[in-house]
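$ run holo --ligand "zinc ion" --emit tokens
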Amino acid sequence: MVNQWLKFNQSILPPASCLLCETPAHGLALCTGCLQDLPWNLHACERCAIPLPEELLICGECRPRPPPQQYAIAPLRYVFPADSLISRLKYSRQLAHSPLLGQLLLDAVMAMERPLPQLILPVPLHPLRLAERGYNQALEIARPLAKALGLPLETQLVTRVRHTRSQRTLDAKARQHNLDGVFGVNTTRLANLGHPTHIALVDDVMTTGATVGALATLLQRHGVTDIDVWCVARTP
Ligand SMILES: [Zn+2]
Ligand SMILES: [Zn+2]
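-- output --
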């Protein structure tokens, strides 16, 4: 038991060397060089966070067909080495990465010119996948973020009621179909929360936006008029 506890605490301590190049990082997750060299997503569509040329605010997809969320933010482009950092968090239980990812997202949120939401909702995993992985990476990213912003972290409002096939091999249309009826809203919880109207959805990666889009559409049907999507990285 004691050993387990020690192991857990070691795993959440900041690593002594840089996660990417392994040079000494003085207790930080990344050395200054690797931090600077991350694939930052400096100019992006404000509705779907896809990287854009500097002069544009909305991308060619969102202009004719606006997505359900009002706003989306993703500090990184999902390319090397952001992809490897995130998959290490996701698939190999390297929880040491999550404070880093949460911090990157926090910096981006603090820089946005938009009112903060009433609560933060990490995109839920299906219970089967949660059992298999042992943790929800979106929750791990959202936890330090909610704490730093002083916002409630909501984990009971939405559940994943249907297990989906992995989205990775599907095209956009198939992804949308794959997501029909996936999420369910707990209406009692919604009432207990006083029917919030502005919520931020947190996830690690936004690929086509189909998952957060399905969740946002469902929440809109329950009176959440204003939805932000906060992701660490966006597939270009
Ligand atoms: Zn480094
Ligand atoms: Zn867009």
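-- notes --
The longest strand covers residues 198-206.
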